[in-house]
């Protein structure tokens, strides 16, 4: 079974609204989780690194006020897309690494469609 | 800066062998990963190399040369279901995010 669970798998929202995507590590603690975005036929682009108990680190060009990341516990990170725009429609996927581990686990991904 | 290059597309026939190359230039190196991704799905882990040499796992093998910044993924006895995108990714420091190449779309025909 999945070791990293992402929810929802698909979501449709109206322009201007906000939508939250959750990423949970199911049977391990993840002090760090990563959020990626993938547009059709393109590769995964790192958006931000989510650190438990501290502020997320955003990649260049990613608006931190638009993509809010909260990592309040060792098993949960959330990505909130605020004031969603059709251009934000994409596949969002999280990954997590066990503390002192090498294996990287990916969530199932979330398809966001903004209409 | 970080740069990971791999071919955009490749084609092959069932039963054949295909080699997908990946070259990288990163500030550090803490492992190279290969993932398979079918359209609309999350990536699936295939292999991990951190030392030079060949890692074999069933029909898939991955090779790494750190001095050359080069890796390849070798797929043997190709099957139709192997048609997918293959992503090369590098981690430059322990505990940091993977940096992905643009992916190679492999089409396997009968």
**Helical segment count of chain A:** 0
β-strand amount of chain A: over 45%
Q: Based on helices, strands and strand pairing, what is the structural class of chain A?
A: mainly beta
Q: Classify the oligomer.
A: heterodimer
The poorly predicted ranges of chain B are none
The helical percent of chain B reads under 10%
What is the average per-residue confidence, as pLDDT of chain B, rounded to a whole number?
Answer: 94
Largest sheet of chain A: 7 strands, mixed
- According to DSSP, the number of beta strands of chain A is 11
Largest interface: A-B, 21 and 21 residues
For the CA atoms, what is the radius of gyration of chain B?
Answer: 13 Å
Tell me the helix content of chain A: under 10%
Element-by-element helix/strand order of chain A: EEEEEEEEEEE
Task: Tell me about the largest β-sheet of chain B.
Answer: 6 strands, mixed
Mean model confidence by pLDDT of chain A: 92
Strand content of chain B: over 45%
How far is the N terminus from the C terminus of chain A?
33 Å
Number of helices of chain B: 0
Give the structure's gist in a few sentences.
Chain A is built from no helices and 11 strands. With 115 residues, chain A is mainly β. Chain B has strands spanning 3-5, 9-13, 18-25, 32-37, 44-49, 53-57, 60-65, 70-75, 84-90, 99-100, 104-109.
Care to describe what's here?
The complex is a heterodimer of chains A (115) and B (110). Chain A is 0% helix and 52% strand. Chain A is built from no helices and eleven strands. Chain A has strands spanning 4-7, 10-13, 19-25, 32-38, 45-51, 57-58, 67-73, 76-81, 90-97, 104-106, 110-114. The model of chain A has no long low-confidence stretch (mean pLDDT 92). In chain B, the strands form two sheets. In chain B, strands 2, 4, 5, 9, 10 and 11 form a six-stranded mixed β-sheet that branches. The model of chain B has no long low-confidence stretch (mean pLDDT 94). The chains are: A mainly beta (115), B mainly beta (110). Chain A binds chain B through residues 32, 34, 36, 42-46, 49, 91, 93, 95, 97, 102-104, 106-109, 111, and chain B through 31, 33, 40-43, 45, 48, 50, 87, 91, 94-103.
